[in-house]
Task: inverse folding
C-alpha cells in the first residue's frame, strides 16, 4: 500500500486546486472522488470573473457564455436591467469546468482514483481512508473537499455545525429563439421571503434555472422553479436534468481544521450569503489548503494555521457579503416596491456589485464605504 504526502477527498474546484498546487510543489498527492469524471454537478454554473485571477491557466475552453447584462425582477414585476459594459461572470457546465481543473492537477502529478466512496476515516500519526471494494490509502495529511454534505469531513470531526440553505437546479433544453434571447444575460428574480432568489443562467445549448431558499422552505423549491420557468414561457420545454443540493455558510469560528485534516470549499461553508456563490472561495481555499499542507510537510506538523488563514483571508469577505445580504433582502422584505425602484435607480450599487464580481473590488471594501451598514443590517434582522 503506497503512502502519500497528502490525500484529497473530492475533485471539485477546492480539491483539484489544492491537489494541483501540492503536486506542482513536489508532494505525492492522491485525489479520490466517489464519481467518475466528467460528472454532472448540481450548480447554476455562474463563475465570477474574479475566479480566473486565482487560476494559472485559462478557462476559455469550457466557457459557454459570458454575461454583462443583469436582469432583475420581483416575482416577474418591477423589472430593471443593468449593463456592466463588460462581462462580470462566465457561464459553465460544471462537469466540463471541474474536469478541466482536475486535468491540470493530474498534469502536475497528482494521482486520481475515481469511483472511490470513502466509508471510514481515521487519524493519528497520519490519516487513513477505507473505501468500498477494500481500497485503503494512507497519507500524512488530508484535505476534505467532499462537498456541502462532507461525509468525510464529518468523520474527521469537522464542520458539523455550519449553517446551510437549500437549492434546486434544472437544466432546460430551450428552443433556439430562447437561447438567443438570453444570450449574455443572467436573470435574477427576487421576493422569496425571507430571502432567496430564482435565477436563469444561459449556456450554449441549455438554460439553467434554479432557486435558493432557507432550509425550511426546501419542499417548495420544485414548484417555485416550475412556476418561474412557466412565467418565462418555458414551462413546456424539455427538462434535461433536475437536482437539489445544499449550500453551507460558515459564519464564525466553526472548526474547519484539526490535527492532520482540514475542510476546503463547500465542505468548509465558504459561500457568500448575498449571492450564494462559492466557486471563487473554493479555489481560494484550495490554494490556502495546499499552502498549509506544504508548511506542515516542511516540519510544522499541524494544519491548525489553515483556519487562521481562512479567518484572515476569506472570512472578512464573507462577513461583509452577509451584512450586505441582510441589508438588501431586509429592505426588500420591508418595502419591496420602493426598494426595487430605489435599487433600479442607484447606479453605484450595481457598479460596486460588478466590480466585486470582476475582482476589481471586494465586498469588504464596498461595505466599508457605508459606515451605517452594520446598524442597518441589525435592524433588518430584527424586522
Result:
Amino acid at each position: 500500500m503506497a503512502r502519500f504526502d497528502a490525500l484529497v477527498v473530492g475533485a471539485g474546484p477546492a480539491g483539484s486546486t489544492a491537489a494541483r498546487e501540492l503536486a506542482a510543489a513536489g508532494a505525492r498527492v492522491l485525489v479520490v472522488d466517489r464519481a467518475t469524471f466528467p460528472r454532472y454537478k448540481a450548480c447554476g454554473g455562474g463563475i465570477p470573473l474574479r475566479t480566473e485571477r486565482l487560476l494559472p491557466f485559462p478557462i476559455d475552453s469550457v466557457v459557454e457564455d459570458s454575461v454583462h447584462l443583469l436582469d432583475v425582477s420581483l416575482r416577474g414585476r418591477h423589472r430593471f436591467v443593468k449593463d456592466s459594459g463588460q462581462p462580470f461572470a462566465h457561464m459553465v457546465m460544471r462537469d466540463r469546468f471541474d474536469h478541466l481543473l482536475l486535468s491540470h492537477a493530474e498534469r502536475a502529478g497528482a494521482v486520481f482514483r475515481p469511483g472511490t466512496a470513502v466509508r471510514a476515516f481515521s487519524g493519528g500519526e497520519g490519516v487513513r481512508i477505507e473505501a468500498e471494494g477494500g481500497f485503503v490509502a494512507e497519507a500524512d495529511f488530508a484535505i476534505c473537499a467532499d462537498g456541502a454534505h462532507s461525509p468525510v469531513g464529518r468523520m474527521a470531526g469537522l464542520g458539523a455545525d455550519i449553517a446551510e440553505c437549500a437549492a434546486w437546479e434544472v437544466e432546460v433544453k430551450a428552443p433556439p429563439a430562447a437561447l438567443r434571447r438570453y444570450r449574455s444575460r443572467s436573470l435574477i428574480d427576487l421576493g422569496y421571503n425571507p430571502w432567496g432568489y430564482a435565477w436563469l443562467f444561459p449556456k450554449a445549448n441549455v438554460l439553467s434555472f434554479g432557486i435558493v431558499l432557507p432550509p425550511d422552505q426546501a419542499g417548495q423549491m420544485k414548484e417555485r422553479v416550475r412556476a418561474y420557468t412557466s412565467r418565462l414561457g418555458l414551462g413546456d420545454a424539455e427538462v434535461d436534468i433536475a437536482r437539489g443540493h445544499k449550500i453551507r455558510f460558515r459564519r464564525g469560528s466553526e472548526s474547519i481544521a484539526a490535527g492532520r485534516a482540514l475542510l476546503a470549499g463547500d465542505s468548509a461553508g465558504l459561500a457568500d450569503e448575498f449571492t450564494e456563490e462559492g466557486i471563487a472561495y473554493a479555489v481560494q481555499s484550495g490554494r490556502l489548503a495546499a499552502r498549509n499542507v506544504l508548511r506542515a510537510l516542511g516540519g510544522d506538523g499541524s494544519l491548525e494555521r489553515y483556519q487562521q488563514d481562512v479567518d484572515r483571508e476569506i472570512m472578512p469577505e464573507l462577513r461583509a457579503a452577509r451584512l450586505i445580504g441582510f441589508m438588501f433582502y431586509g429592505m426588500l422584505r420591508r418595502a419591496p416596491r420602493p426598494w426595487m425602484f430605489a435599487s433600479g435607480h442607484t447606479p453605484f450599487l450595481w457598479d460596486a456589485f460588478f466590480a466585486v464580481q470582476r475582482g476589481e473590488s471586494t465586498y469588504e471594501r464596498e461595505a466599508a464605504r457605508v459606515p451605517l451598514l452594520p446598524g442597518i443590517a441589525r435592524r433588518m434582522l430584527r424586522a
